[in-house]
Amino acid sequence: MADCFDGNILAAKSFARFGVTHMFGVVGIPVTGLANRAVQLGIRFIAFHNEQSAGYAASAYGYLTGRPGLLLTVSGPGCVHGLAGLSNAMINTWPMVMISGSSDQKDFGRGDFQELDQIEAVKPFSKFSVKAKDIKEIPDCVARVLDHAVSGRPGGCYLDLPTDVLHQTITESEAEKLLTEVEKGRVFEATKAPPSSEIEKAVSVLRKAERPLIVFGKGAAYGRAEGELKKLVERTGIPFLPTPMGKGLVNDDHELAASAARSLAIGKCDVALVVGARLNWLLHFGESPKWDKDVKFILVDVSEEEIKLRKPHLGLVGNAKKVLEMINKEIKDDPFCLGKSHPWVEAISKKVKDNVSKMEAQLAKDVVPFNFLTPMRIIRDAILGVGSPAPVVVSEGANTMDVGRSVLVQTEPRTRLDAGTWGTMGVGLGYCIAAAVANPKRLVVAVEGDSGFGFSAMEVETLVRYKLPVVVIVFNNGGVYGGDRRSPEEVSGPFKDDPAPTSFVPGAAYHTLIEAFGGKGYLVGTPDELKSALSESFSAGKPAVINVIIDPFAGAESGRMQHKN
């Protein structure tokens, strides 16, 4: 019957009607029809080689756009592979929805094809999950997962679509009625804001502080709080410290940026206004000895649970942008500003200048064979040379990410994606693809270690297939952390002639990988070769891999986290 819709069409129509424009995934039984229908209805489907990378793409897309990133997988193993992306979204608190096909409901428990209790499997990694048990439930289930993903603290949600439900049919008029009913019934959450009395208290604490500090993270970036943040910094003269993915909300080169004096800033501040950043391992749990034992924290977070967990001096529950707007309004009525000659601002400023000049002296040297600093300086200058809109930088690896964090400069919001709260390796290519799709006007530059690249290297074919403006720079030092660093005593046992567990094939020709698919590869080992490759690939704006040969003994094992390994 011409006017009948099956579950695939109804699901695709539901996503399109409720505002979805992009979907990432790997097709197969039983969801190929759903992907095809989605494309037909104007949703761009980006097909990957591996659900893990597609899931990382969906999670980053949620962060970059503020709308749920969608991952489509097959049943069973496809769903399990997708858990990597779903859990990454959950830990980073980014909105994402994983949609998986599942086995026929009547055959469940009998060993059906790719059978798995997927609702149970996703529980630890999702804030909400639902199974559509009948075709008529599809529109409501779609609306619920999309709405839950962005409500309160954002996170991962899961939608289960059994094979039999995808094959059921209803008439076009029934489908339209269901879609209209669900659309009318959707209620969107109001922007959370604390009472004005709490804002007054917060401003009073900041005003009385002798050594205040503003710390902001990717929650502030997700909340689009950059305008209010810059206003607050410039109106009060308070130094600021971004977390790695908060970089660029206020220009890294701003005169009040305290990143290069991080230890002094967090060790000596007496009041810290923390916006959209959690007091977790990245901020040393807000505890001494890294922080002063008497520091007063004012925490701004969308989650009341987070504030209860951290027990700050003052907690402001609400959207970062809205809360900062209220703080700015309160300060405007009775302004205060530290001024450049304030002892605290002077101390931070002096420390920043000292540390920057030490770092610049190191960076100024052309070291060949390359260490990490020489190529990173050349990459920094090439990225800054692009101007605005600034490229999105994707960074992963141990040493590569650590060095990149302190050397690469972010001048615009949401232009740095890295391993994040969970320290996830393997996110690189997925994040690149998400960034290219979410920001079509920006170049995307990945700066990756060879180990990080290896997790998802096959997705360079995806870059070529969709003609995405992504340049992947691989720091190739021949292994995880680099060459064989074992002591002679450790090289023993019956398999002592095997390569070290941290070693890869030396001199691997990673640049030829993209050439196999028609992309452009570069092999570089000197400053001039790297400058030339960057200049050519950046201006071409086409998929490329630059294989940068690094001294295998440059850098440190485990980067800056040796104490944990």
Automatic annotation (TrEMBL):
Signal peptide: none annotated. Coiled coil: none annotated. Keywords: Lyase, Magnesium, Metal-binding, Thiamine pyrophosphate. It comes from Gossypium australe. Transmembrane segments: none annotated. This is 2-hydroxyacyl-CoA lyase. Residues 199-326 form the Thiamine pyrophosphate enzyme central domain. Its cofactor is thiamine diphosphate; Mg(2+). Pfam families: TPP_enzyme_C, TPP_enzyme_M, TPP_enzyme_N. Catalyzes a carbon-carbon cleavage reaction; cleaves a 2-hydroxy-3-methylacyl-CoA into formyl-CoA and a 2-methyl-branched fatty aldehyde. Homotetramer. Belongs to the TPP enzyme family. It catalyses: a 2-hydroxy-3-methyl fatty acyl-CoA = a 2-methyl-branched fatty aldehyde + formyl-CoA; an (R)-2-hydroxy-long-chain-fatty acyl-CoA = a long-chain fatty aldehyde + formyl-CoA. The keyword Membrane does not apply.
